[in-house]
């Protein structure tokens, strides 16, 4: 389970770093709080961070359920793929917003795999306990 804890920590650090990028963009483009509009690159960074937070709400419990009910090492590998997908989403969204779909879809597929695996593992154990 240590690898799953490490992946969890890295995913949370990544999200935190994305929030720092938002803060830096707020200063650079002079977007005073509480404003959330004003410069396209600021708005992109804000959306990247918000979407990452939205995805973490599903990803983190799914990661731990998969690890608990199926296989921690496989969960950690899938979690690493999620982190890479989020980075791809970040990079693509900043460079060319229309290209962000690949990173988004890859991360979503990882999350759905983790959810399905966690559910299947829980149902299987429930059936065994009879």
Helical content stands at: over 70%
* The CATH H-level homologous superfamily: Membrane associated eicosanoid/glutathione metabolism-like domain
Largest sheet: none
The span between the termini is 27 Å
Gross morphology is elongated
Report the order of strands and helices.
HHHH
Q: Which structural class should the secondary elements be placed in?
A: mainly alpha
Query: What is the count of structural domains?
Result: 1
User: The CATH topology is what?
Assistant: Four Helix Bundle (Hemerythrin (Met), subunit A)
Helices, by number, come to 4
Percent of sequence in beta strands = under 5%
Q: Could you report the average pLDDT, rounded to the nearest whole number?
A: 96
Number of E-type strands = 0
Description:
The protein has 130 residues and is mostly helical. The protein has a single domain (2-125), classed as Membrane associated eicosanoid/glutathione metabolism-like domain (Four Helix Bundle (Hemerythrin (Met), subunit A), Up-down Bundle), CATH 1.20.120. Helix content is 85%, strand content 0%. It is built from 4 helices and no strands. α1 runs antiparallel to α2 (40-69) and α1 (2-28) packs parallel to α3. The longest helix is centred in the middle third of the chain and has 30 residues, at 40-69. It is elongated and about 60 Å long.
